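Why should sequence recovery work at all? Because a backbone constrains its sequence more than one might expect. Tight turns favour small or flexible residues, buried strands favour hydrophobic ones, and helices have their own preferences. The token representation captures these environments compactly. In the example below, the structure is given first.
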């Protein structure tokens, strides 16, 4: 559950930023007063791009060695040996 919270936060970030802009930048009294379909679609697109970029960065930074032969996990004398690349 904790692994998905940053992605949810990144998805909500453009919506929160636009709502704060409407409230304090344009001085709109209602939280939903300045929202249009176009603004909602742009925020949705930015949110999806932010989440996709974060998932790509997590995947790119978490890689180990990618060359060599993969050895799957195995049991040896009652001990689990994790899979690895040789």
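From this structural description, the recovered sequence reads:
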């Amino acid at each position: 559950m904790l692994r998905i919270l940053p992605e949810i936060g990144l998805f909500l970030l453009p919506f929160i930023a636009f709502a704060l802009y409407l409230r304090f930048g344009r001085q709109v009294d209602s939280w939903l007063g300045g929202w249009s379909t176009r603004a909602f679609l742009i925020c949705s697109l930015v949110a999806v791009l932010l989440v996709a970029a974060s998932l790509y960065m997590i995947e790119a930074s978490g890689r180990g060695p990618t060359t060599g032969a993969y050895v799957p996990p195995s049991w040896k004398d009652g001990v689990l040996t994790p899979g690895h690349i040789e």
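A few observations help interpret the result. The CA atoms of residues 42 and 74 lie 49 Å apart.
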